Amino acid sequence: MATTYPTRQTLQDASQDAESLGKLLNDPVGAPNVNRAGNDLKNVATWYMEVLDSATSGGNQEIYTTYTQMLADTGQPVPTIGRVLSDPAPERRGFYSWNGPGGGGWVWLEPQPANQGDVDQLASDLAAKADQTALDATAAVADGALVAADAVERRTQGVAFRSSTSADEYGHVVTTVNGRALYGVRRSDNFLTTPKGVRAPVLDGDAVQIGAQRIVTTAPGATYLDGLVTNNGRLLWGYHSGMRTLVVDGIPLSMQRGMLSGDCYYVGDSILQYGIAFSGPNANGTSYAPCLSDQSWPGWALLYSNGRVQYAGQNAVAGYTADQVGRNCIPAALAAKPTFCVVSCGRNDVLQGLDVDLVTIPAFESIFRRLRQAGIIPVLCTMSAQGNGGFDTRRIAEHRINNYLRAYARRYGYPLVDMHRVTVDPATGDWRSGYSQDASHPNAAGARAMGAEFARVMGDWISPTEPIHADEQLAVGLSANVVPNALFLTASGGEADGWMADIAGDVAIETDPAVVGNVWRLGQAGETQRSLTVAVTSGASYTLGFYASVGNPALAQVYALRGGPTSTIHLGGLRRWSTPIDGMRYFSYEFTVTGGSTSATIVLHSNAADLRVAQLGIFQRVIR
């Protein structure tokens, strides 16, 4: 008759029963095996020895502690069975036969089978005890599994697993109880997809296994260290060695506020494009790229942050909609691999009357998702003020786009620079007075307000690392600065030593407590230009850095050329700048010398703008 066992409330009893069963099968001779009822079940080895004892009980028997003790005992009658119980060498324990000095002494006794009755009895005893222990453990495990399953059900209440067929678009779908998908694997491309479209690519490595130090995909550059994958090789999370960050569901976790590099790449439309310096306004005439004009709000942001917000380049085209920015500008941003990508567009969607919900917002979603998946933090900018007075349809679209951008940034925790707030006239909803050149574009004053706001917001996101400065005046070769007389400490008659006077004008050497060394003041009253050519290394990377202020609304320029003074290849700086810069602001821009050139020329130009320059340097960068 089968024994009925009480229901177990926890898995502890099952664990004890399993332990008892393990002892039954594996413990050595004599080891106790007390079950929860207090009965000593012994073990298979003990029972075997008991049977063997019974099988050899017909002659004289002696018990020895060690093998050496047995060998020393040579006075036993023949035949005698000797048993070694606890020799340090386990292989010497067991039964031996004493055959006398002439018969080989003590000889290892191979166990002989007991008589059939003894074997049948042992088998019966083993079966009974194993059956009792197994039933006890099985009942406990089954009951414990029910308890555990109930706990899992409580933890996952509201979540269901939807079965699928080969014809379904998604397989392995996890849903809510009302059928809303949480995530699933799309069969068409084997991507793990969430409702919002974030996708984790499939790892297709040669060997994917738990505990592997490296999991390598076949995609170029997609190398993960210590990744967690599903049984069929899909990545849940992993450390991406190329981006040097943890990737979860395809999204790098490097996008977090604070202690980040301040390099910003910009994509957008004409509002950004017009900030590149040209010989004429609004990107007309000869390009001086990558130099920035006073229409560049990224340039103002650089100055107002004293170089902490780094200008890493831009790709912006007049007339582009959000969709065109995504298709034509974002690839350049992805290739540049900046920490931040600033997205500033939408005005042309408004002007063209595009459907905001069906066209514009999906285009923004695509832009932000692609940046996030590349480990680049999107910086969202609301559209600056617009001259939409009298155009209610445009006004509604303007605010629909701006409110979407605010909501997206708030939802995902990304930086938002509210350009609309700092440029709009609260009484009219159009541009603030004096901030625009037309209905769509800021002038220099508007760009300055936008750049100051950008520097303020991004100050919470980037590290407090200052760009390199010329803090001492040493001979060239003793520091990273290739500019001699960098602090203008050696001068005569207002002329800094070593510079060429291209246009005479007026100059003066002064001091300012805001900077180190002297300030060189140029062109207070008339046109003035000075230039200096320095040696550089082709292929090397440098940083152009200087403090500058502009006192009058007139042309001021500080820039570097590749090669000599007549070169038309610009390395960086400020050109076509005609707006005052209050106080001494620091400019910093990184560039690489190309074209085999071994020289660079710095140009300082002022046409009665009252340009002041200090702590000037071209610093060779050390890249690690």
Strand order of the largest sheet: 5-6-7-8-9
Unreliable spans are: 1-11, 196-221
CATH superfamily of the largest domain: SGNH hydrolase
Helical segment tally? 13
In terms of topology, how is this protein built?
Layout: H1 12-26, H2 44-55, E1 60-64, H3 67-72, E2 80-84, E3 94-98, E4 106-108, H4 116-155, E5 159-162, E6 170-176, E7 181-186, E8 191-193, E9 199-200, E10 214-216, E11 223-229, E12 235-240, E13 245-248, E14 251-252, E15 263-268, H5 270-273, E16 276-280, E17 284-292, H6 297-304, E18 310-316, H7 322-328, H8 330-336, E19 340-344, H9 347-351, H10 356-373, E20 377-381, H11 392-412, E21 416-417, H12 419-423, H13 444-458, E22 491-492, E23 495-496, E24 500-503, E25 507-511, E26 518-522, E27 527-535, E28 541-550, E29 556-562, E30 570-577, E31 581-592, E32 599-607, E33 611-620
Parallel strand pairs: 1-2, 15-18, 15-19, 19-20, 20-21
Antiparallel strand pairs: 2-3, 3-4, 5-6, 6-7, 7-8, 8-9, 10-11, 11-12, 12-13, 13-14, 16-17, 22-23, 24-27, 25-26, 26-33, 27-32, 28-31, 28-33, 29-30, 29-32
